[in-house]
Amino acid sequence: DAGITQSPRHKVTETGTPVTLRCHQTENHRYMYWYRQDPGHGLRLIHYSYGVKDTDKGEVSDGYSVSRSKTEDFLLTLESATSSQTSVYFCAISEGTGRDRGYEQYFGPGTRLTVT
Amino acid sequence: DAKTTQPNSMESNEEEPVHLPCNHSTISGTDYIHWYRQLPSQGPEYVIHGLTSNVNNRMASLAIAEDRKSSTLILHRATLRDAAVYYCIPFQGAQKLVFGQGTRLTINP
């Protein structure tokens, strides 16, 4: 199994408070991703990183920011949590990306976030 | 994004083979076909991927049609642990995997 951990695994927070989720990998993979999963929507990409300090937005990035200061850690921050951000958040890693290899992604166990 | 069509659900018996179909008629010539599965209350799990030739690994086999417009994931001897939602995803070399609704596989003891 790929070495990916997420913390916390469960969190309940109040509307308007900041929240940071952490993804940690031991595989030394270049690419890291944050997805959210909601009923009826499947998994949707929030942000991804293609190297230390290199990040880009996904399809549902509003209200989220990310940081990657080390290869192994990718942080997702909700600056001011809202009830619409109640979801399960998955981190994923990939060795690379590109048409020549079709690199697979490996997912963490998820963080269940509830915003009340 | 290439569009995929998978059955909403399938059912099989333990220790029998399972063939999970996927149609991806709009796939481009250089897209890989990825399969992932998601067990209850877990993150998605990579299963297998291929480009043109059939592929085998310890989890499954992937049979790709000659015209690449469809593929079939084969679980040779299903176990109860194989009960999950299976996703077929054409990978376009972009930075995201696009998950559709997938096929919910039920395994009967």
Note down, in words, how this protein is organized.
- Chain A has 116 residues and is mainly beta.
- In chain A, 0% of the residues lie in helices and 57% in strands.
- In chain A, strands 2, 4, 5, 6, 9, 10 and 11 form a seven-stranded mixed beta sheet that branches. A four-stranded antiparallel beta sheet of chain A has the order 1-3-8-7, with no helix packed on it.
- In chain A, strand 7 and strand 8 form a beta hairpin.
- The N and C termini of chain A lie far apart (34 Å).
- In chain B, the strands form two sheets. A five-stranded mixed beta sheet of chain B has the order 1-9-8-3-4, with no helix packed on it.
- Chain B starts with 8 loop residues before the first strand and ends with a strand.
- In chain B, a hairpin with a 4-residue loop joins strand 5 and strand 6.
- Chain B has 109 residues and is mainly β.
- At the A-B interface, strand 5 and strand 10 of A face strand 4 of B.
In short:
The complex is a heterodimer of chains A (about 120) and B (about 110). Chain A is mostly beta strands.
